Amino acid sequence: MKFSLSHIPDIRFGADEIDNLAGHAASLGAERAAIVMDSFLAASGLAARVQGMLAAEGITSEVYSDFAGEPKLKHLREATAVASGADLVIGIGGGSALDIAKIVACTAASGEDAMHYALAANPLPKNALKKIMIPTTAGTGSETSATNIFAGPEGKKLWIWGAETKADLVILDPALTVSLPASLTAWCGMDAFIHAFEASTNRNAHAAGKVFGHEAMRIIAANLAEAVGNPSNLDARGKVLLGSCYAGVAIDNCGTAIAHNISHAMAGLAPIHHGLATALGFEVSLPWLAQADTADLNAAAAVLGLTRASEIPDFVTRLMDACGIRRAIPAAFNSFTVADLANEMRAPENQPMRRSTIRDVNDADLDTFATAIMTMQKEA
Amino acid sequence: MKFSLSHIPDIRFGADEIDNLAGHAASLGAERAAIVMDSFLAASGLAARVQGMLAAEGITSEVYSDFAGEPKLKHLREATAVASGADLVIGIGGGSALDIAKIVACTAASGEDAMHYALAANPLPKNALKKIMIPTTAGTGSETSATNIFAGPEGKKLWIWGAETKADLVILDPALTVSLPASLTAWCGMDAFIHAFEASTNRNAHAAGKVFGHEAMRIIAANLAEAVGNPSNLDARGKVLLGSCYAGVAIDNCGTAIAHNISHAMAGLAPIHHGLATALGFEVSLPWLAQADTADLNAAAAVLGLTRASEIPDFVTRLMDACGIRRAIPAAFNSFTVADLANEMRAPENQPMRRSTIRDVNDADLDTFATAIMTMQKEA
Lengths: 380, 380
Hints:
By secondary structure, chain A is of the alpha/beta class. In chain A, 50% of the residues lie in helices and 13% in strands.
């Protein structure tokens, strides 16, 4: 046994824990904060509320919320300008807001452009601004990971990776997640479940990662359908949020596998929600994966209350049904063929997820998965 | 549900992982390191080996190893002088070496005496030296905790507590633990098991702490007797070491309970190994504690493969038997009475552990535990 567990930030969990944000910011020594927040959250009054709390503690702040969907280089540049001169970056929102905030804490500190750090072109600065991350969706796990995704100048997906981008403090406040629509709760929650599952069963899985991955699987599987069906159930919301955070720790250490290969390949063809794409990719590849019947797959089965790995696919199908997930892809996929998708699955940037899969993935397997996805019902 | 999880350092686990120490030190930016190491380890050649590795990476170093047993103020002052001008402190050894190293990383940075920080008299400096902690016993969990114990000028036990003393990096190398005598392996391992158990079942127990506490209980219970009986079994050694580290996370967040009240009270009377005292205190109080029959106690039972809390006392007695732990106290206790021990249990500094116990501990309960301890066989 040999492994590396990357550090885990301070975590504060509780409904309305955001009310203690200013105190946490002060204890990090903050005097001037940049807030990166999803635009609909900012418009809901949360930006004003947060700025008011900070001001009462003597901390000045500026808000950047002029983005939607996946972060683009332009957003990183604009947010860096807003964060210039700040000593703390606060990210509030989904994975996009958090990824922008985590990158900007580095670029604002060094004055370098985000492209300077993309794809590990240069080492990240050691003096990044302090970072508080507050996820309002339970899915990406960005609050506990060192990975940050954005679209480069030509629209190509790029990443900035490094411990320097990790949060100093994570606030998990289930009350911030109750307004998320049911379909997004389901898609994001499945994404988190799959993070936990893939990190616990792929070629990089290890003992410490599994502690987090198993706990995440256990609590998400037990609470996701309730969080979808009864959006105001703060207990269920909180458990899914906590599970997503643990799953973030699991992927931060052990990465993902074939479902994320399929998901990223789909995103390469046409816009689709990452959580939905991942859930669809997971369901179509899982019966094949479960045949590997490894010790880790059987351990995952036991965590889910099953007796063997071969029972996992049915379990996941029931979970997705209970969460009301329609197996359908956007109409935009009508313009593409099975071969187009299989090609994306073979693209160089998607090979790490293919290679980390516990079963060897040959080209015929990819064709099978691509066929299953592309023959799915299309949204009107 | 509401909780706070304190940050967890980077962890590197593996046999001979210490061989990568210099690289880790360099990646923390170190140029000049102070090494705090148990004297018998230093004499074994480990000090020279570590200094050689560091020198090969261009890092100069000095060793402080002039201490044995529990740290005294004198040791902290001497180690601070050695660490003056260093940018990294490396602690290698049992809890004493690690506690000294963690405190000295603060006092060497600020130039203040350790007494300046004792019992939270003043805030710790924000610019502590970088810290790498390498436990060579599996017990205290000091490598992942913010608590540090030493004897003050009058011999009284004092503590320095704060996130500023926590490690940046922990190296868990089971190969460093194989030379530990069987009795110490058993006593330290039981201490770690009890950390995990008390943190998971006391009044401060919470969901995130239990993730670590439960995993620690599981792997220590499954591997401790083997680590004691077959000292060179690196797999069992490693699992107990990892369990002790997780148990450190659990107490760092949720603290201990009545077994540690008894243990600290015993140490107040006469010298006794902390792990042994804690194991004895645990066994005599556990049947009483298990009667509380709480959800957390039953969850702990399930983790141990039992069906109910009332089975835990027998399980622990069998575990202690399997580890060859003699139920006997040092002859020095002959000078004291049951009332003396009960008095120590009522001392102000031991009340936090009494109050955190999930069952109310009345004075008659303390008398019962004190009687059970003091009527035990005495070592010749």
